[in-house]
Every structure is written in structure tokens, then in C-alpha cells.
Amino acid sequence: MTATEANTRAGASLVKSLLNAWSWLFLILILGFFEIYAQIETGNTFLFRIYNLQSIAVAASQILLLALGLTLVVVAGHIDLSIAFTTGFAAVAMALVVRAAGPEAGWLVVIAAMLVGILAAILVGVVNGWLVAHLDVPSFIGTLGTYGVARGAALIVAGGATVSIRSDEARAIGNGDILGFPVPVVVAAVLALVCHYILTHTKFGVHTYALGANRAAVERAGVDVKRHLMLLFIISAVTAGIGGLIYTSRFSAGAANAGEPILLYAVAAVFIGGASLTGGQGTIAGTVIGAFIIAVIQFGLVFSGLPPYWQFVAVGLVIIVAVLVDQSKHRIVGGRG
Length: 337
Description:
Blueprint: H1 3-20, H2 22-41, H3 50-75, H4 83-101, H5 107-134, H6 139-157, E1 163-164, H7 168-175, E2 177-178, E3 181-182, H8 183-201, H9 203-213, H10 215-220, H11 225-251, E4 253-254, H12 263-272, H13 284-303, H14 310-336
Antiparallel strand pairs: 1-4, 2-3
């Protein structure tokens, strides 16, 4: 190998390392930007205020509850667009049970209602998994179909309206705290650790990465790919369903569109965090960083006094950057091959 070739390889390796770490660098950049803005415009800090940090963490947790299971699906080379209304379906199911029991419903009723909400979400996951694994329907089309079905089902059972509830127990789940940390943040953190463990320390995780990289090889290795896909879509539905339970608990209401505003952010968090459009790549840590990037953008733009709809523009631009980074990594790998 000549010196020129060695330098070229070293340069390519450095660029790839920077591309792999771009989401972390970008998070630091936007935090620094809003901190400087706050110091100049208001004389106060943006980053070192408990209220700001809690608001960002809660917003990130909402995104994560939809994005965690989705990360596993994307790593396997698929997509789940139904998570938005899986969230709504679970939220409405929980709210209906709590409301039927009346305002005096205790913890047992609330827990039973949450289990009903999870079962509603699992139903959507089973349908998604069956369509993709057994009927070979492309996941984009299959989950887009269940997106509409779950939306319609949630609206039907809710009578086309938001299902309000009166339950101090439910409200405590959505608005309480554990050791000073908001319950939604704690729930999202626990689920993130569980999903991280699944991806990095189990055969299921190894098979998930392998499935996204080369399905034929996984099948030749004797892995039950259909069962694996079924489980992946069920996991995705369950994490989205938990998002619905948190929504109902926070706002004392179940709404069919509970997850609709978060769908773009959840998908964005996964790809901003380093998941590949072609599968075989992605981490839970990356998705967590992606969710925090979006949450910082959301809160930072509101903090700056800009209208809320600018959030969509900003997140859309970040998604485009994430796709360009992913393509650049593939070109570098291909060029070195």
C-alpha cells in the first residue's frame, strides 16, 4: 500500500467516523446555539434551567415511546406507519374502560384499563406482522393500511369524539414524578434500556440486524423469519400503545389522533439517530439522541418566539440531512470496497 492510498483510507475512515457521530455533534451544536441566543436576548440560561430540561425530556419521551419499537422494525429493513393510530387506539381503549367505571375508579380499574389498551395495540401489531410476514405485503403498504384501519376503529369506538375521563390515579401516572423525574420520562427511559438490551445482548437482536442486512442468509441459517417479523411488529405496536396510555393519563382523555402529530417526529428520530433506509443499521442510543434533537428544536423554537409550524420545517430539513448522511456513509463504504 502506498502512502497516498494509506492517507486516502485514513481520510475516508475519519469522514465516516464523523458521519456516524453527526447526530451527537448536531445535538451539541443546537444546544449551544439556543444557549447563546438565550444569553444574548434574555440574559438567562436556556440549558441550565430545570423547567426547560424537564420540558425537553417530556417532549422527547413522547417521541421515544413511538420510536423505540419502530427502531427494531427499521433495523430489520421494514417500516411501521401505523404507530400513530396504534397510539390513538390504545388511548381510546384505556379511556373507555376508565370512564365506564366512573370517577371513583381505583388503581385496579386503571391498571385493567391500561392492559386493555395494550391488548388493543397488540391486535394492530399482530395484523401488521401477519400482513408482512405471512402475506408478503410490503411493510410500507401494509402498515399504511392498518394506519387507516386503526384510525377508523379508534374513531368508531370513541363515537367520533375525544373520550374524557376523571381519574386521579390515571392523572398521577401521566403527571406525577418518580424521584423528581416525570413519570413519562421514567417510562421512556426504562423502555429504551429494555429495547437496547434486546438489540445488543440477545439472539433476537442479532437476528434483527442480520434480517435487515441479508434476509436470505438468515433464512438459510434456520431462523424462523416469519415469527421474528411478527414479534417485531408486536413490539412496535406495544411501545406505541404505551405512548397512548401515557397520553390518556397526561391529558385525562383518549383521542384517536393522539399519536398523529408525533408520527413524523418518531420516524425522524429513528433515521436521525443513524438507522439506515436499507436496514441492518441503527441503535436505540441513536434514536434517543434523535428524539432529543427534535425535542430541543421544538422547545427552542417556541423559546425563541417563532410560530409552532416552523417546527415542521426544521424537522423536515434535519430528516433530509439524515438521509444525505446515510447515503454518504454508503458511498464511502462502497468506495473503499
